[in-house]
Amino acid sequence: MVQAAPQQVAEDKFVFDLPDYENINHVVVFMLGTLPFPEGMGGSVYFCYPDQSGMAVWQLLGFVTNEKPSAIFKISGLKSGKGSQHPFGAMNLPQTPTVAQIGISVELLESLAQQTPVANAAVSSVDSFTEFTQKMLDNFYNFASSFAVTQAQMTPNPSEAFIPASVVLKWYENFQRRLTQNPLFWKT
């Protein structure tokens, strides 16, 4: 659900609650267009979740600016990682075991450029179907190749058909090429 009313926890810091965060895979952070950041400023985006002991773990996801007013972050893999340095440390924010938070810290653009977000928060530019198909192709090719034998190693068996490895490789390369050109080619 879209949340447009953050809690202001300091002059330059805001948090949004994420109830039932364990069932959320991605978070979209965007500016509404009604109030831009001050000139030369942007917002660092942090994800906070309670660890097993209930302590807040903050991780830097990335940032938004007037020039880049939206971002998508993958949080599903972050729920067990280590925290990072963050500007919310001295604040006593209420934390419950089933609620995570997205924190926005308004900062200078120069400092945003020097920050390093947690590695696996970035969303893949490849959609999940294409990624699945690529992994399936790789798996099939590796599986089929593991049975490759030379012609000298073959035992004749009239009830079994053999496919040359070069044919499988050619199919694999053609399928990858077509998938790269048009991920939905298989629908036609």
UniProtKB/TrEMBL annotation:
Gene Ontology process terms (BP): cellular response to heat; protein import into nucleus
Major place of residence: cytoplasm
InterPro entries for this protein: Hikeshi-like_C, Hikeshi-like_N, OPI10
Keywords of the record: Cytoplasm, Nucleus, Protein transport, Transport
Domain annotation Hikeshi-like C-terminal: ranges: 127-187
Pfam families attached to this UniProt entry: Hikeshi-like_C, Hikeshi-like_N
UniProt entry tagged with the keyword Cytoplasm: yes
Domain of life of the source: Eukaryota
Keyword Transport: yes
GO molecular-function terms, A-Z: Hsp70 protein binding; nuclear import signal receptor activity
Subcellular location: Cytoplasm; Cytoplasm, Cytosol; Nucleus
GO CC annotation: cytosol; nucleus
Ranges for domain Hikeshi-like N-terminal: 2-121
Subunit annotation: Forms an asymmetric homodimer; required for binding and nuclear import of HSP70 proteins. Interacts with ATP-bound HSP70 proteins.
Job description of the protein: Acts as a specific nuclear import carrier for HSP70 proteins following heat-shock stress: acts by mediating the nucleoporin-dependent translocation of ATP-bound HSP70 proteins into the nucleus. HSP70 proteins import is required to protect cells from heat shock damages. Does not translocate ADP-bound HSP70 proteins into the nucleus.
Recorded family membership: Belongs to the OPI10 family.
Designated name of the protein: Protein Hikeshi
UniProt source species: Dromaius novaehollandiae
